[in-house]
């Protein structure tokens, strides 16, 4: 019998006021809206549980961004279970540090810096594209360590979950499938949406994207 393929499950936090109006939200702690809470809790009932898409029996670790909107999303996602999965709160999965552009709309940024493109220029006073690529690649290495232990040695569980943010998750998807970071611009990652990253042909050398924006509500 073939063993299941290990997976990385990416969850973006639910809706916030700044995700609605498009303000760049990095280190600022913005709470979920009421709708964001309902979105996330509703997704959890459908997706999370024994025998469901996100089965706690198969989760070896959940990495959670320190921002309150992500931590709240973790609890809304897993607190209905008899035993929430093991998790750690880490700055490694925080949102892109927008530096001087924190809290600004793209239109406001372009008034100051016409032609600015985060995927090429990064953020002054925050993280460059090289910084972001290095951080994301470091997280991917940790995920693949879990996957390798399970796939080759039968140690631990097979799935890793990350609860993070829009730009971070887009970067993760691009780098997971060995794309240059800037191609993350082509992946829409909706609030409360779930992405599933795995491998083709049960081969850890063939990373793949299997699902994007599961049950994400229309914006």
Automatic annotation (TrEMBL):
CDD domains xref list: HP_PGM_like
GO molecular function, one term: sedoheptulose-bisphosphatase activity
Coiled coil: none
One Pfam family from the record: His_Phos_1
Chain positions recorded as substrate binding sites: 25-26, 69, 95-98
Alphabetical list of InterPro entries matching this protein: His_Pase_superF_clade-1 (IPR013078), His_PPase_superfam (IPR029033), PGM_Phosphatase (IPR050275)
GO BP annotations, alphabetical order: ribose phosphate biosynthetic process
Name used for this protein in its record: Phosphoglycerate mutase-like protein
């Amino acid at each position: 019998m073939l063993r299941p393929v290990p997976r990385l499950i990416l969850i973006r936090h639910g809706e916030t006021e700044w995700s609605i109006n498009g303000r760049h939200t990095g280190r600022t702690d913005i709470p979920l809206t009421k709708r964001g809470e309902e979105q996330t809790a509703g997704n959890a009932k459908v997706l999370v549980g024994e025998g469901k898409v996100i089965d706690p029996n198969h989760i070896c670790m959940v990495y959670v961004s320190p921002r309150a909107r992500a931590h709240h999303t973790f609890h809304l996602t897993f607190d209905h279970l008899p035993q929430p999965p093991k998790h750690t709160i880490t700055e490694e999965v925080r949102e892109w540090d927008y530096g001087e552009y924190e809290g600004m709309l793209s239109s406001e940024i372009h008034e100051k810096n016409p032609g600015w493109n985060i995927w090429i220029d990064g953020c002054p006073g925050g993280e460059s594209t090289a910084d972001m690529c290095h951080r994301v690649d470091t997280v991917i290495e940790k995920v693949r360590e879990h996957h390798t232990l399970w796939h080759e040695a039968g140690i631990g569980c097979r799935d890793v979950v990350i609860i993070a943010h829009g730009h971070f998750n887009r970067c993760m998807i691009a780098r997971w499938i060995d794309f240059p970071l800037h191609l993350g611009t082509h992946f829409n990652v909706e609030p409360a949406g779930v992405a599933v990253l795995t491998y083709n042909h049960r081969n850890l050398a063939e990373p793949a994207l299997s699902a994007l924006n599961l049950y994400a509500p229309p914006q």
